[in-house]
Write a structure and sequence with these properties.
The protein is an alpha/beta fold. It is 31% helix and 26% strand. The protein has 6 helices and 10 strands; from the N terminus they run αβαβββββαββαααββ.
Length: 213
């Protein structure tokens, strides 16, 4: 009897095919803005949707408030066996827009990727270049409008989940609501979900020059 070639436990999909089925998200923010929590909630929301594989992880660096921080979320219909840092993401989420001039965000985004930015500007007025699809939402303003603040500071990580749902369709608002309830007390989940739905409604998408609101 001949030797069965490795990997014998992957009869239906090659590794390349599994990678095609997986969506990788990089979150960019600053220490204290809840980037890691947002990555976890997105993973939880995708799991509630029925995704067969989800992971989230921080990128460790200087652990101080205000320092640039990244986190990642992987979502797949199949179990995920990749745990390395994301090198080329499908989606980049920029919680703090000042990072656009400080961090090479596009350098870790696929040419046909999507970048979602916390900004009051419409997508065609955000100077980033080299990206097929840009979506913007004023997450800071929405947090203030809905009373989602801590010590007067707007909570902007969770409203960005609404923008992701609108711009990508990876998860639905219902999925996000379930994800919030898994990660937060009931009152906090309700308050955050109000901001999520407002952000969903106010996200503007520019797909290769065509603006849809």
């Amino acid at each position: 009897m001949g030797t069965i070639p490795w990997p014998f436990f992957m009869p239906f999909y090659t590794i390349e095919k599994r990678m095609e089925m997986m969506r990788e998200v990089i979150w960019h923010g600053r220490g204290g803005q809840g980037v890691v929590l947002a990555a976890q909630i997105l993973a939880e929301s995708a799991y509630c949707r029925g995704s067969g594989g989800v992971t989230s992880a921080p990128t460790f660096g200087p652990e101080r408030r205000g320092a640039p921080v990244t986190a990642s979320t992987r979502i797949s219909d199949e179990p995920i066996r990749t745990f390395s840092q994301i090198e080329s993401a499908d989606i980049a989420v920029v919680i703090d827009p000042t990072l656009l001039s400080m961090v090479d965000i596009l350098g870790r985004l696929k040419d046909e990727g999507i970048i979602i930015i916390n900004s009051p500007l419409p997508p065609d007025e955000v100077d980033i270049g080299g990206c097929a699809t840009v979506a913007t939402v004023d997450a800071s303003g929405i947090a203030r409008e809905t009373g989602l603040t801590i010590g007067g500071i707007p909570v902007i990580n969770t409203p960005m989940l609404g923008a992701i749902a609108r711009a990508t369709g990876l998860v639905s608002l219902e999925n996000i609501e379930k994800g919030l309830k898994k990660k937060m007390p009931p009152d906090a989940a309700r308050a955050n979900f109000s901001a999520v739905t407002a952000a969903y409604d106010k996200t503007i998408i520019n797909n290769k020059g065509e603006v849809v609101d």
